[in-house]
Design the sequence.
């Protein structure tokens, strides 16, 4: 059973003539992978993400064709609230996601909405907070937190609903590089410990490639590739796409051009060194 | 051109401390540091939005403490991170005309200048469109255009490469080069280490309201201690070269840029294939 | 004056008798004091009521903020003093000023010591629908965010030559557009973002909602409420039997 399945799905926003999503047939399986979603700037990635928990088509008014299934349930036939325990989305700006007066209440919020008993809420708060390492922040107000801490709280408040897929829309955009790295490390830990699939939409490829298992490439509202990391970065689609290619990639592509290197393009520095040593 | 003499000043709390800085015409400077280190505060002092509580700032040898923001903004143009904080007019054309208002041009002159700018930024096709209807990239261009049309001598950008793909960054670079040719001084606040390392000649690092480093980028961004204090990470090319060195690649630690590493590896691979052939 | 004045109503977390009271008790306090103030036109009883606020303010550890709110009224005070003295009498003017002080203080105490979260909870306990109470506390939560955004917008516009001060009423109104339009647009965008985030966390789910934090009336709250009821009753009685009160109750300035 697929976690998410798009069947010939098209979508355009109300008032727009162009389709934001063109014939999407994407399938995301329950294989606990770390998936990286990349594409040129444009509404495609954000739109795709919002289809994955029912926001499209239920919250956004627009015109669609085709179907989207989450755990075999059509997203039009169930409420977004019901889907929140299957797929969780952490949006780009934590400022607009933190709505409570303190961190503890923030994490409890989703569970409150679902009518979970109070004792269970307390237990789940503890688990989430310890996984995201924010136990010491539980009674702080959102504006007292740094950007990285806010992002952790946002992640904890979604994790607490125990979704099988955690999606993050440009989570590191507003963070400085060290904090960005810490958050990505945290996400990797979460993927491994909770055994869930993580999907991140990002521009900062050099930070993320070392962690990804799979990649999805989008262009003009279409998914042009969905493959393992190695296959994707060695493919033509990746090369031609207008992305911020990581430095390692550029270096090895140049070496390949000069016919000095023939192997797979490495995705991280340790990989690169291994490739060079094992010639 | 600008001479910041020592100053401290509180904003409720001490935001900038002991800032002493000399900036010269035609320079291209990057300011980097942790979120909250005082970067945006510093640039706000340059156009009068914030007045230092101690010390003086001189632009072209004139003390600006008594110059109004309106006058200063003609010499110092700041392009903030969020374009939607600026756009409000009925049409894109009106947006530019609004920026030109304080120059007291007559209708003809204003129209000519507006046409020039729209042409320079490739925004002519949006002339009659509402600025609120533009895509993210286009509205950022419009925000930049609405400052450059005033022809300030100093251009300051706050996080210009955020969320931009490779092509957009390229065209931004071209814009900067053109302005520098015209003698403008460019200052950029950024977290984008790769961009800074490759393109910006001089970098200033800030932490806790102080300037902790000021010098050639290659040197400044190479010091591990400084990098740590400012929550940055080493540029990829440098990380790679240090890793190569630690794995036995001779002299790899003298390499800095992407180009350096590429040349080194090309040589290495040529040598090793020659050696292999000899056997 | 205006922005400083608003600060005197901002909630600050502290550990004091007042802060630890149930928000409904504090709402009752505000109402009781307002009603008491409206009962009288004479200086002396109003002065007693005003004095009775001071111990409350002290045990609430909010003295400084309360003083600020009183100070913020100074402009209004001069205005009232002037008009009332002109048309009625100085005594009446002073009585009116005391009345304003009492009412503003009562509500100031409320806002300074009630956590907006608890405010929403107290509204819900009074049978208001959850969505309504929640939007209330959401508004509170975003006030500082929107204030910061407004500042950023002012900075951005000033950086392109926008001048804050313009001459003439019409120009002043036109001059607000470059500030208001971006603010409204940004707020709308923010509203969408917040709504998405809420939906994604099952807001509006048909299930019966659990409330993790609850507010309960404790012994302290009952004692305080009873005190307030007695307080109000005392003053109602004084009002009704005013002619039986000692001479000095009706004291007023010869003006």
Sequence:
């Amino acid at each position: 059973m697929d976690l998410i399945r798009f069947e010939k799905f098209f979508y355009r926003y109300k008032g727009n003539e162009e389709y934001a999503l063109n014939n999407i047939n994407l399938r995301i399986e329950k294989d606990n992978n770390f998936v990286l979603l990349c594409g040129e700037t444009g509404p495609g990635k954000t739109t795709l993400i919002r289809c994955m928990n029912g926001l499209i088509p239920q919250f956004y008014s627009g015109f669609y064709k085709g179907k989207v299934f989450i755990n075999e349930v059509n997203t039009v036939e169930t409420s977004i609230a019901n889907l929140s325990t299957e797929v969780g989305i952490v949006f780009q700006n934590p400022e607009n996601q933190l709505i409570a007066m303190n961190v503890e209440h923030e994490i409890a919020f989703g569970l409150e909405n679902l009518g979970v008993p109070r004792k269970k809420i307390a237990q789940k708060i503890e688990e989430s907070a310890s996984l995201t390492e924010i136990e010491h922040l539980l009674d702080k107000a959102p504006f007292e937190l740094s950007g990285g801490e806010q992002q952790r709280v946002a992640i904890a408040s979604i994790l607490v609903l125990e979704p099988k897929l955690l999606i993050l829309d440009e989570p590191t955009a507003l963070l400085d590089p060290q904090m960005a790295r810490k958050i990505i490390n945290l996400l990797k830990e979460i993927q491994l410990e909770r055994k869930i699939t993580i999907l991140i939409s990002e521009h900062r490829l050099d930070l993320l490639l070392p962690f990804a298992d799979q990649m999805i490439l989008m262009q003009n509202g279409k998914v042009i590739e969905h493959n393992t990391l190695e296959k994707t970065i060695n493919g033509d689609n990746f090369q031609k796409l207008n992305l911020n290619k990581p430095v390692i990639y550029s270096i090895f592509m140049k070496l390949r051009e000069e016919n000095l290197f023939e192997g797979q393009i490495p995705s991280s520095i340790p990989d690169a060194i291994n490739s060079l040593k094992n010639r | 051109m600008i001479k910041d003499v020592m100053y401290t000043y509180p904003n409720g709390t001490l935001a900038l401390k002991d800032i002493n800085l000399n900036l010269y015409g035609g320079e291209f400077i990057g300011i980097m540091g942790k979120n909250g280190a005082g970067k945006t505060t510093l640039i706000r002092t340059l156009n009068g939005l914030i007045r230092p509580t101690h010390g003086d700032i001189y632009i072209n040898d004139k003390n600006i403490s008594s110059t109004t923001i309106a006058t200063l903004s003609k010499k110092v143009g700041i392009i903030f991170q969020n374009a939607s904080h600026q756009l409000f007019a009925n049409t894109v054309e009106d947006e530019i005309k609004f920026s030109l208002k304080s120059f007291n041009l007559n209708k003809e002159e204003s129209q000519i200048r507006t046409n020039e700018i729209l042409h320079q930024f490739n925004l002519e096709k949006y002339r009659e469109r509402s600025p609120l209807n533009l895509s993210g990239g286009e509205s950022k261009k419009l925000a930049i255009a609405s400052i450059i049309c005033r022809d300030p001598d100093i251009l300051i950008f706050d996080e210009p490469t955020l969320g931009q793909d490779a092509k957009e960054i390229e065209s931004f670079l071209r814009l900067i080069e053109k302005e520098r040719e015209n003698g403008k001084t460019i200052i950029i606040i950024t977290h984008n280490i790769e961009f800074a390392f490759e393109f910006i000649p001089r970098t200033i690092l800030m932490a806790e309201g102080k300037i902790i480093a000021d010098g050639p980028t290659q040197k400044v961004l190479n010091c591990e201690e400084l990098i740590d204090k400012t929550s940055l990470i080493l540029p990829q090319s440098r990380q790679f070269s240090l890793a190569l060195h630690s794995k036995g690649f001779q002299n790899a630690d003298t390499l800095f840029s992407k180009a350096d590493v590429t040349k080194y590896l090309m040589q290495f691979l040529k040598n090793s294939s020659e050696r292999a052939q000899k056997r | 004056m205006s922005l400083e004045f608003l600060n005197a109503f901002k909630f600050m977390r502290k550990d004091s008798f007042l802060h630890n009271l149930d928000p409904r008790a504090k709402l009752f306090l505000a109402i009781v004091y307002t009603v008491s103030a409206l009962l009288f036109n004479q200086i002396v009883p109003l002065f007693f009521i005003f004095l009775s606020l001071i111990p409350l303010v002290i045990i609430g550890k909010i003295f400084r903020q309360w003083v600020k709110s009183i100070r913020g009224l100074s402009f209004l005070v001069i205005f009232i003093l002037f008009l009332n003295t002109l048309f009625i009498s100085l005594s009446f003017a002073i009585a009116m000023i005391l009345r304003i002080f009492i009412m503003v203080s009562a509500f100031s105490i409320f806002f300074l010591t009630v956590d907006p979260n608890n405010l929403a909870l107290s509204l819900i306990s009074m049978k208001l629908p959850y969505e309504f109470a929640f939007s209330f506390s959401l508004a509170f939560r975003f006030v500082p965010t929107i204030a910061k955004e407004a500042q950023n917008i002012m900075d951005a516009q000033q950086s392109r030559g926008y001048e804050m001060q313009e001459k003439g009423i019409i120009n002043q109104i036109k001059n607000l557009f470059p500030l208001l339009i971006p603010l409204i647009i940004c707020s709308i965008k923010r509203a969408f973002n917040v709504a998405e985030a809420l939906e994604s966390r099952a807001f509006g789910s048909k299930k019966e909602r659990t409330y993790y934090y609850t507010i309960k009336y404790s012994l302290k709250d009952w004692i305080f409420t009873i005190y307030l009821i007695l307080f109000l009753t005392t003053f109602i009685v004084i009002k009704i039997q005013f002619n039986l009160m000692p001479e000095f109750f009706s004291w007023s300035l010869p003006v």
Notes: Chain B has a mean pLDDT of 86. Chain B has two domains: 2-233, 235-279. Residues 252 and 264 of chain B are 8 Å apart (CA to CA).
